Amino acid sequence: MEVTSPQVFGGVSVAVIAAAALFTLSSKSGNSKRPPSLPNWPLIGHLPYFAKHLFNGTFYVYLRQVQLKLGHITTNNLVGKIEYHVSDPDTCKRIATSPEFVRTDFLLRPNQDVFGFALFGMENGPLWKKHRKAIVSGMGPQFVRKAYTVTVELMDDMIRMFNAHIDSSPSKSYELNIREYLSLITLDVITRVAFSHDMNCLQTYDDDRRLRKEESASGNGNLRKNIDEVSRVGVTRLLIPSFLWWFFKVTKRHIAPQNKFFDDMIMGFLGPRRKAVEEGTDGEEGINDLLTVLLGRGDDGEMLFSDKEIRDECLAIMFAGHDTTSNTITNVFLQLCKNPHALAAMRTEIDDLTSPNDETCPAFNDLTKFVYVDYVIKETQRTMPIIMGIDREVAADEIEVLGYKFKKGDYFMANNRAILLDPEIWGPDSEEFKPERWINHQVVDGTFYPFSAGPHACPGMKMALMEAKVVLIQLVRFFDFELVDGQKLELVDGVVNHLPEGLKLRVTKRGSEKSREWVTAV
After folding, report:
1. Whole-number Å distance between alpha carbons of 345 and 116
2. Residue-level pLDDT at 522
3. Which domains does the chain possess?
4. CA atoms of 54 and 421, how far apart (whole Å)
5. Which residues of 180-212 are buried (b: 16+ CB within 10 A; e: fewer)?
6. Residue 477: per-residue pLDDT
7. How many angstroms separate the CA atoms of 481 and 340, rounded?
8. Which residue, among 197, 190, 200, has the nearest Cα to 143 in the 3D structure?
9. Cα→Cα distances 280→66, 275, 295, 314, Å
10. Burial of 80 by CB count in 10 Å (0-12 exposed, 13-18 middle, 19+ buried)?
């Protein structure tokens, strides 16, 4: 698409939106000389250029197109909100780590009804430090080791499920949406480890599929749809003014069913634990998890966090602790199916490091030996980034960035996709999936930050990488995977960019003779 061409979408001309925009005023920046920009429309800025992408859920594509067209720093006018997007490595590092930039509550501000108090969206300050300290203290080394044990147990269950489905099928294959299973297993991990609560999502979902022979209509079956809808609403609200929310179906009324769904889910474990704390009976259970930290008391005997803070933080942990991981692993399977050479190399490493007579998962300390698996994960994070970028505001009174001057409050984003696919950094084959590029690769600062960077780096990074490795090693050891035709395989916008319908695969048992023939062929 040519970004210089205004769009007409959904049968509604941009002129309709322009008329509505007359009720608002454009925000102003103190920067009289701005970086390159597409031509501005009165009042509505660049809406005619990105409206179609917004409706299609591919705003991240639009941002990269603008960066390719205009250079490493660009000005974007989002219906009066001025943003500066950057894909220069040194500047991206500066945005993420320098005290010249600060994170505000830009994400939470329009989403108070969903994530009022969530660490991943809090602005810098005392409240953020308080939440950050609690989360980090509850996610130490023991947290990761406990998560490893739970992940291995759940993977054993998943493998048994897959085998049972395959054995009962006349075709000796099982067609599934792998993201559904990955979402549920990672949610089970985070709730068991962080909250000591077994939601039993994986088993419930699989049992229901067996009975219905269709996608579950139960609570767990709707989990993925509710997560994706909350994600869509959250991002859309960021990109358009509130007077357009009804038009895009992102009002408080539209999101009410999702809020109730997650309220009921969280109160299922938070309510009993809160009651136990209040009655002084929680100590008898010997529970020591992240929820214990959130339910703790200060030196004055008062609760550290309000019910609203704990509810929102639990929801944020569930999202951040499983949605990013499940979508990343889903993307890995897509890349492996599209690139059989990478799957063959990865499988060779796994076979070399595991015993065919021992189906147990490799020990926790042995996971570091699977270096090619690491390369596959990193290359997937590079070619299919699930986070649009790192957003910050200028904290200093005045700074200079790439030859332009900016003032306090000016809004920046380190454009993740633009820098991860930049041929100047990754070479002329930057858009190709090549795990081998990571062999002896020295990451340039500011070019690869899948878990963010600086003071806001993800505290669950080690857990997420461990989960991904365990899942991939165990599934690739025992099964073959094939893409089902007719799928939408382009990521769509969200708090986490994701495949809109998940990823449908046809799974068969891996036979040693068949596998040798297949590996030889590729």
Report:
1. 45
2. 36
3. 135-387+448-521 (1.10.630.10)
4. 21
5. bbbbbbbbbbbbbbbbbbebebbbbbbebbeee
6. 96
7. 10
8. 190
9. 58, 8, 12, 22
10. middle
How big, in percent rounded to 5, are the helix, strand and coil portions of the chain? 55, 10, 35
Please report the pLDDT score of residue 286 as a whole number. Answer: 56
Q: What is the pTM of this model?
A: 0.88
Residue with tokens 């998962």: 361
The structure tokens listed for 290 are 């992240």
Query: Which residues of the chain carry a pLDDT beneath 50?
Result: 1, 4, 8-12, 14-30, 213-220, 284, 512-522
What is the rounded average pLDDT for all residues in the chain? 87
The annotation status of 337 as a binding-site residue, yes or no, is no
Q: Give the residue among 225, 249, 234, 230 at the shortest CA–CA distance from 111.
A: 234
Structure tokens at 464: 């997420």
Report DSSP letters for 61-114, one per residue. Answer: HHHHHHHHHH-SEEEEEETTEEEEEE--HHHHHHHHH-TTEE--STTTGGGTTT
Residue type (1 letter), 31: N
248-275: pLDDT as tens digits: 999 999 999 999 999 998 888 888 888 8
Q: Which of 149, 160, 158, 234 is nearest to 189 (CA)?
A: 149
